[in-house]
Write a structure and sequence with these properties.
By secondary structure, the chain is mainly alpha-helical. Helices cover 47% and strands 9% of the residues. The chain has a three-stranded antiparallel sheet. It has a two-stranded parallel sheet with strand order 1-2. A two-stranded antiparallel ribbon has the order 5-6. The radius of gyration is 32 Å and the shape is elongated. The relative contact order is 0.08. The structure holds one RNA strand of 76 nucleotides.
RNA sequence: GCCCCCAUCGUCUAGUGGCCCAGGACGGGGCCCUCUCAAGGCCCAAACAGCGGUUCGAGUCCGCUUGGGGGCACCA
């Protein structure tokens, strides 16, 4: 791969929540920039005042920060090519739009919305493609400038050539040729003075010296327009890469708003902002996102550093990718397993606190080794270990009855276990397990039956970390107290 | 309706004309380990959308069909 330092960007519009697609649109240009020792910038494309959502920009910034996708220039930190928020660059676009008019590649258009709408209806009725009808296309330059200066409402449209064709280039799909006659006189500058995406993005990418534009494939159809704009200015064209879209898990279509909300009920989400709450760690989420649309020949479990070292545009895949939450769980669990004990403890603690459990660091550190490899998401720590921080547990009596045994028999076993454990100075695996196994043998039962009773008695649940290690942490007095309670429960059945 | 893009196991993908009776990962199934649940180990099932070309030879190149996705705004 060519390793000349590149300048790449993530240019979201603050119109909603940050989802997987946005995250990947940020990740890949970030990886390319880091791979080549280049620069990655964040630019906010907020030229649509109607769809603007307050707080969306902050969610974007928080999301990037959480994922570890750090940018070198952006609205919150500045940089040599600022400002990085398009509404703050209004004057720039105005200047360039009129420059294009001067160059004969664009024209001011004074057509009203109503008239254009009627024309469009007519065209649709006649089964024609809806297009601008060219009314203002050949307006005299001075007249146009005069009418605009006198306060008449206008937009500036690109003057698309009527004939000829243009060949565009996408790095993962190769060249593509389009007939100019299929293209419209698109609006570049809106009547509110702000640019459309087509103008703003091209101007900014040029001014900010972007070398590689990595963006969603929804832009592919307008690439010919973008190429035309760039060539009209006689600018150097950046390399374009269009990422495939994400499909819903079934692979049938994009995920709808409703389906996105549905997913959260199953503990899954397509929104970056929900991930932490759901117990996902950035390493897992990042690995998952990276592998959708990127074919990595080597080991698929990667840290962000691995990704940087391996990233190559030529391994990007053009076909749409279905979201697979099972794979997210896999990567999350795998990355959790690589965490150091103290790191995991720090990450897990908030989930206990969230449930108002009295966590102590000391006990938490002892518990981690018992639950570490059992965690798929961080909040799984609650299902395995919440009981460690409770004064008492409330086992269901039926759970205390061992398989193929009666309540009375189970109670008797519990009494015998109690008697043995009570004689020990302390309870820990080496002291408690051998005598318990002897008991199992003497009774002619399976370890599962006997240990099962003890597990439910001590932890209050049928699934738990290893029994004797758990007992050690809880301590002898509590173990005996809980056993006594369990015996009482069994006797009452 | 018009334009554009895509097409290998259920899913994400490897594969750039012979190394492929197609490899890996997730998920699924089985076995082992085992105090539950995990983790780990071993094994199994599972795909080149179809049809025509090109070629000595095609998953790999070309065309068509089909299927899927995206776009046709003073939204991005």
């Amino acid at each position: 791969m060519d390793l000349k330092p590149v300048r790449t960007r993530f240019a979201p519009s603050p119109t909603g929540r940050m989802h997987l697609g946005s995250a990947r649109s940020a990740l890949f240009p970030f990886l390319l920039a880091r791979r080549t020792g280049g620069t990655f910038i964040l630019r906010i494309e907020d030229t649509d005042q109607k769809r603007f959502v307050p707080g969306a920009e902050q969610e974007l910034i928080d999301g990037l920060h959480w994922l570890g996708i750090n940018y070198d220039e952006g609205p919150d930190m500045g940089g040599p090519f600022g400002p990085y928020r398009q509404t703050e660059r209004r004057g720039i676009y105005h200047k360039y739009a009129w420059k294009l008019v001067e160059l004969g590649h664009a024209f001011p258009c004074f057509c009203t919305h109503d008239r254009l709408e009627k024309v469009r209806q007519e065209q649709m009725k006649n089964k024609q493609n809806p297009r601008y009808d060219g009314t203002c296309r050949n307006l005299n330059f001075d007249e146009g400038r005069h009418r605009a200066a006198s306060g008449e409402r206008y937009v500036i449209r690109f003057k698309m050539p009527k004939e000829g064709k243009i060949t565009t280039m996408d790095l993962v799909r190769g060249p593509s040729t389009t007939e100019n006659s299929a293209l419209d006189d698109s609006v570049l500058l809106k009547s509110d003075g702000l640019p459309t995406y087509h103008l703003a993005a091209m101007v900014d990418d040029h001014l900010m010296e972007i070398t590689h534009v990595i963006r969603g494939s929804e832009w592919l159809p307008s690439l010919p327009l973008h190429s035309h704009i760039i060539r009209a200015f006689d600018w150097e064209e950046p390399q374009f890469v269009h990422l495939s879209v994400f499909l819903k898990p079934s692979g049938k279509g994009k995920m709808s708003k409703r389906e996105a909300v549905e997913a959260i009920k199953d503990g899954h989400s397509i929104f970056v902002g929900d991930m932490q709450h759901l117990g996902y760690i950035p390493e897992g989420v990042l690995n998952w996102i990276a592998l959708m649309g990127w074919g990595v020949p080597e080991d698929e479990v990667m840290t962000i550093e691995d990704m940087i070292a391996r990233f190559d545009i030529h391994n990007l895949t053009p076909s749409p990718a279905a979201i697979n939450f099972a794979k997210l769980d896999h990567f999350n669990a795998t990355h959790i397993r690589t965490l150091r004990t103290d790191d995991l403890a720090a990450r897990i603690k908030p989930y206990f606190l969230r449930e108002d459990l009295a966590v102590t660091d000391d006990r938490l550190l002892k518990i981690i080794p018992l639950i570490h490899e059992r965690l798929v998401t961080l909040d799984d720590c609650l299902t395995f270990a919440a009981w460690f921080f409770k004064e008492s547990v409330e086992p269901k009596p039926v759970d205390l009855v061992a398989k193929n045994l009666t309540a009375a028999q189970s109670a008797d076993i519990a009494r015998q276990a109690y008697a043995i454990l009570a004689t020990l100075p302390q309870i820990y695996p080496a002291s408690a397990e051998p005598p318990m196994r002897l008991l199992v043998e003497r009774l002619g039962l399976s370890p599962n039956q006997v240990f099962g009773i003890l597990r439910v008695a001590v932890t209050g649940q049928t699934v738990s970390p290893p029994l004797f290690e758990s007992m050690e942490i809880v301590g002898k007095p509590k173990v005996l107290e809980r056993l006594k309670k369990a015996i009482a429960l069994l006797e009452r059945m």
